[in-house]
Amino acid sequence: QVQLVESGGDLVQPGGSLRLSCVASGKISIFFAMGWYRQAPGKQRELVATITNYGITNYADSVKGRFTISRDIAKNTVYLQMNSLKPEDTAVYYCNAKSVTYDSWGQGTQVTVSS
Question: How far apart are CA 103 and CA 43, in angstroms?
């Protein structure tokens, strides 16, 4: 019921930073939560960060203190600020919109952390 478009992925060196953006085709306020997930080659897709409709955030242990999820409700956009990037952060990052009955997913944006 909503289209999500991610952007901002890039090739960066370890220790670098990126900001990912997810623009939704509709009001993100109608969803219980928005989030970012990632999938590395040969690995299962995993949760990175979520933010609820009340602004409560949740992070994977592996990114706590380095990544920050935020939203701009007026712009229907969710962001993921990624600092102190590590090679193990390399993955395709997907935006997610969650309701109690269904999830919507973007197409993903590639983040590669390498020297």
Answer: 20
d(CA 43, CA 67): 20
Spans of the chain below 50 pLDDT: none
Task: Give φ, ψ of 4 to 5 degrees.
Answer: -125, 135
**Beta-strand runs (E) in the chain:** 4-7, 11-12, 18-24, 33-39, 46-52, 57-59, 67-72, 77-82, 91-98, 103-105, 109-113
Q: Which amino acid is at 87?
A: P
Q: How far apart are CA 66 and CA 8, in angstroms?
A: 17
Task: Bin 42: left if φ > 0, else alpha if -120 < ψ < 50, else beta.
Answer: left
- The C-alpha atoms of residue 32 and residue 37 are separated, in whole angstroms, by 16
Specify the pLDDT at position 100.
86
